[in-house]
Amino acid sequence: MTIYIGVYGASGFGKEVMPLVRQQYPTLLQAQFVFIDDGQAGTTLNGYPVLSYADFVSHSAQHKAVMIAIANSRVREKLAIRLDQDGIQHLAVQAANTVVLDAVEIGEGSLLCPFSCLTSNIKIGKFFHANIYSYVAHDCIIGDYVTFAPAVKCNGNIHIEDHAYIGAGAVIKQGTPDKPLVIGKGAIVGMGAVVTKSVPAGVTVVGNPARVLEKK
Questions:
Q1: Residues of CATH 3.40.50.20 domain(s) within the chain?
Q2: pLDDT tens for residues 48-104?
Q3: 31 to 4, 27, 49, 52, 105: CA distances (angstroms)
Q4: Which residues contact 77 (CB under 8 A, 6 or more apart)?
Q5: For 94-205, CATH number?
Q6: Which of 37, 48, 59, 104 could staple 10 via S-S, CB 3.0–4.6 A?
Q7: What residues does 206 pair with on adjacent strands?
Q8: Is the pLDDT of residue 1 over 70?
Q9: What are phi and psi of 122, to 5 degrees?
Q10: SS3 letters for 2-52?
Q11: What is the spatial distance between Cα 123 and Cα 143, in angstroms, rounded to a whole number?
């Protein structure tokens, strides 16, 4: 059976993800891997062709699979739906040095970059992205399409709802079993923020301690 693997997103992040995808399929040839990006179709990136989505779908390979390497969670969701409609498999990708311990559940389409760590008793939804040096500690619940930028520190007993974005170097204080700290749906935690209390849905918090960024 011929296999064709695509990394959706010919960007800087896509360039980081492609070697992780290749690592998971060591027996495949380089010619069986491509980037997918309508805006850059017809070019090459790091020696791989960049195809339009339509060209990828129409390829003659019997089995096609895609990793979505796009940090914007809303775009990620739209692309995931598109792939489902076209019957294309979602890849889950995990770096070889990722640490995953006991009782960890992860939904489809997840991406765990190098040096990421999931400890124990964790439940994670679909299409989660954990960039390099990020961790999730014990007894956390993470929704769908959540994005961690590099070096996010998500301590124990934290609930993060769908489409939340946690910026690079952010620290989220540990909650308790009876009162977990909650990051609301669609909330944005700014780069380097130190989150010491729950964050409402849809707001942006910044600083140490993190406070809601007021619109001017």
A1: 3-91
A2: 999 999 999 999 998 999 999 999 999 999 999 999 999 999 999 999 999 999 999
A3: 9, 12, 9, 16, 33
A4: 127, 144, 145, 163
A5: 2.160.10.10
A6: 37
A7: 211
A8: no
A9: -125, 140
A10: CEEEEEECCCHHHHHHHHHHHHHCCCCCHHHEEEECHHHCCCEECCEEEEC
A11: 8
How would DSSP label each residue in 64-100? Answer: EEEEE--S-HHHHHHHHHHHHHTTPEEP-EE-TT-EE
All CATH 2.160.10.10 domain ranges of the chain, comma separated, are: 94-205
Q: Is 138 a catalytic residue?
A: yes
pTM of the model as a whole:
0.94
Spot the catalytic one: 90, 129, 138, 163: 138
pLDDT of 35: 98
Cα dihedral 86/145/191/177 (nearest 10): -160
For residue 154, give the amino acid letter: C
Which residues have a Cβ under 8 Å from the Cβ of 80 and sit 6 or more positions away? 68, 90, 109, 126, 127
* Average pLDDT of the residues of the chain: 96
Q: How confident is the model at residue 215 (pLDDT cuts 50, 70, 90)?
A: confident
Closest CA to 4 of 79, 91, 81: 91
Asked if the peptide bond before residue 209 counts as cis, ω within 30 degrees of 0, the response is yes
Spatial separation of the C-alpha atoms in residues 137 and 23, rounded to whole Å: 26
